[in-house]
Amino acid sequence: MPKYLQERQITVWQFAQSLSLRTNIEVALFKMAGCRQAKPSKMDVQLYSSILEPLDMRAFQVAMATLSESEREEGETAFPSLGSILAAMEEARERFPVYSKGAKEVNDKPVFADPKQKRLSA
């Protein structure tokens, strides 16, 4: 199965097995916001995460990586609208394998951190 994230992006955007899916989504939204120099409210992040939770998490992770590394367009807010995030997720899915080109299945499960991955101590 392809990973869809670039190797350098995996360590930032992978989900922690010890956190709930909702918390992983919130953490990713805050990371993306930090990269875009945005300061969303906790309530906004909770609302977004409740809407995003049932969706394709692999596409979400790719979208977060893409949005965090992209230049903001003129007039674009630092923290993307929900519509912008959903559009980025749809764009991310375009990179995924296509059944008509021989793909057998699309992996929509999030990328998780390796449980043996070393963490920097505080």
Protein model, in words:
There is one protein chain. The chain has helices spanning 7-13, 21-35, 42-52, 57-69, 82-93. It has 122 residues and is mainly alpha-helical. It has one domain.
Total helical segments: 5
* Percent range for β-strand residues: under 5%
Q: Biggest sheet: strands, sense, closure?
A: none
Q: What would the average pLDDT be, to the nearest integer?
A: 83
Helix-strand sequence: HHHHH
Number of domains: 1
Number of strands: 0
| Class of secondary structure makeup | mainly alpha
Gap between N and C termini, in Å? Answer: 34 Å
Global geometry: globular
Radius of gyration: 15 Å
Q: List segments where confidence is low: pLDDT < 50 over at least 5 consecutive residues.
A: 117-122
Helix content: 40-55%
Give the topology:
Layout lengths: L6 H7 L7 H15 L6 H11 L4 H13 L12 H12 L29
Keywords, separated by commas or semicolons:
single chain; 122 residues; mainly alpha; 5 helices; globular
Briefly characterize the structure.
By secondary structure, the protein is an all-alpha fold. It has helices at residues 7-13, 21-35, 42-52, 57-69, 82-93. Helices cover 48% and strands 0% of the residues.
